[in-house]
Design goal:
The chain has 13 helices and nine strands. It is of the alpha/beta class. The chain is elongated and about 75 Å long. The termini are far apart.
Length: 285
């Protein structure tokens, strides 16, 4: 295990990530306590990008486990490639020794984080998709920093304890034991003041009028009640890219109800239609 005293570099944000003070504190205290950090918030609030920013800032490799609804924990730990071993034994044209099962063990994402030569950031993305057994068993492994490979009767122990970031879109409740073993932070959707800081980072030379008019209209569009998937920060960034790439666009268009590229903001057909209808009837001005 890595000595804690060597891990004192604090995370203060990334080149493309605006970090508020409370989030910075919980990231750094989670690292100091060697506890997973559970992040909740609606899609587009920067949960996933935080892990990327931590890895970039601290110059650590990032390993991402994208959780699926039918995923079994063993898939995240390792896989025994029985099919390849069977083919090698049948056809005999492989350089592998079929008697060595170790040659057919492939590490999953958690296994990769445990066996890495350097400390990594391990992002476990959308944990709420998994069932309760997966969640609790996974935290047992992360607590103990080891797991067994039963096919070769071997225990894999982490060379370095990874920095563990877990995200949830809060679509399903997590178990009490799971919550009790993590630090927690809710990332709220950025308010207009924070959003201006985010846009400034992505567009350092943006015209102030373009930025302000786009942000004002963005929040009005997010307030449309009948929309199921509200546009998030990444949609706003892409929308501003589209607006600034259009040589004919003028900021005053938005105030007049001429809102181009709605399809950049709304990705579902019913939402696109609802937003277009509201704009046409000028109910958000």
């Amino acid at each position: 295990m890595t000595n804690k005293k060597t891990e004192r570099q604090d995370f203060t944000g990334g080149q493309k990530y605006v970090l508020d003070g409370e989030l910075a504190k919980i990231v750094n205290i989670s690292r100091a306590l060697e506890m997973p950090l559970l992040l909740k918030g609606e899609p587009g609030t920067g949960k996933t990008m935080l892990a990327h920013a931590i890895a970039d800032s601290l110059q650590m490799p990032l390993i991402v486990l994208n959780v699926k609804s039918n995923m079994k924990l063993i898939e995240a730990l390792y896989q025994y490639d029985t099919l390849t071993r069977l083919n090698d034994s049948r056809f005999g044209d492989s350089t592998r020794d079929v008697s060595r099962i170790e040659d057919y063990i492939k590490m999953g994402k958690i296994g990769q984080a445990f066996t890495a030569d350097v400390r990594t950031v391990l992002l476990i993305d959308e944990i709420d998709k998994a069932d309760t057994d997966f969640q609790d068993d996974m935290l047992d492994v992360l607590d103990q920093m080891e797991f067994d490979i039963i096919e070769i009767d071997k225990t894999m122990r982490a060379r370095h304890r990874p920095v563990i970031i877990i995200t949830s879109n809060a679509k399903k409740d997590l178990s009490d034991p799971f919550l009790g073993r993590c630090n927690f932070h809710h990332i709220a959707f950025p308010d207009p003041k924070m959003m201006r800081k985010i846009i400034d980072i992505h567009f350092p030379n943006i015209d102030t009028e373009v930025m302000q008019s786009a942000i004002d209209m963005f929040y009005k569009l997010r307030d449309i009640d009948v929309v199921e998937k509200k546009p998030a920060t990444r949609e706003l960034i892409n929308w501003i890219r589209a607006l600034t790439a259009d040589p004919d666009f003028k900021p005053k268009q938005l105030a007049k109800g001429d809102i181009p590229y709605l399809g950049v903001l709304f990705k579902k057909s019913p939402d696109y239609a609802a937003a277009g209808s509201v704009v046409t009837r000028r109910k958000i001005f």
